[in-house]
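User: quick one, fold this
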Amino acid sequence: MHIRRDRFNSKRRICSLDELAGTDLVSLGKRVVYCGNPVHKKNPGDFGLTPPSGPRPGKTLCDIANIFEKAVASRLLQEGARRGLVSRQFQGEWPQNIWAVNDDGTALEAQLENRDTGAYHGYPLLPTDPFVELVTEQWRARQP
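Assistant:
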C-alpha cells in the first residue's frame, strides 16, 4: 500500500543528549512496552491484534518495514529509548515519541499509547518525510 502524504508534523523534535543529562536511558529502555495498534497492521504476525476490517486511509503499515514479530518491535522501541531518540514532549515520565531504525534502514516512530503503563505503538516513517534523515543520522550517532 503506497500512501501519498504531502504534509508532515514539523513540530517533532528529538531531545539532545544535553537535554537528557541525568536521565537514566537504560532504565527507560527497560520500562517501555510495545503494544501495537491494529490500524498499522495488514498481517498481524504474532502481535495478537486483529487488523480493522476497514483500515483508515493514511495510516502507514508496519508490513512495509518487514516487522512481523512483536519481539522485534519491542527491541527497536527499547533501543530507541536507550539511545535517547526520544521527543522533547513528555507525558508524565514517558516521552510522547521514540524513534528507531530497523536493520534494513527504515526509520520508525513510536507514539505513546498509555501514559500509565508506558505502552507504545509504532509505524514506519514514509521515505518522503524529511524527519527520516534526522532520525537515521541520530540513530547512527548515538550507537552504544
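User: anything notable?
Assistant: Confidence is low (pLDDT under 50) at residues 1-5.
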